[in-house]
Fold this sequence. Notes:
Keywords: Membrane, Transmembrane, Transmembrane helix. This protein is mostly helical.
Amino acid sequence: MKPLFLFPYWGRYLGYFLVVVHIPIVLYKKQLMGMHGDGTADGIFNGRHLFFMSTTLLMAIGLFIAAFSKEKIEDEQIVRLRLDSLQWSVYVNFLFLIVSLIFSTDTEHILFLNLLVPLVFFIIRFRWKIFQNNRLIKE
């Protein structure tokens, strides 16, 4: 069975690299903004918004590539695990979305959660299921 719409196997490492590059940039910028104020300005193209857009897109693209990259051996069982993990990630995303809509008024926070939680949870659950599967095979 040939999977459609998956990135090559090496795309996972590219995606993880983009996510790892994103983290120190955001931490440094938050530290810098704490010292020099938040630099608010009028309009959509202010420095704070452009930084938020670029770093969020960098992380989202990295997670997307990492989540939807082929495995070395892509068989029906991997496809089933991928589908099951995707279903669980949608459930968790809606749970977080409902809770954040009830308890938060910050739309930037809700957008960030809604964009990244499904990908992060999908990757974690998919990798965990593959780990469990490999452990069962070795026993």
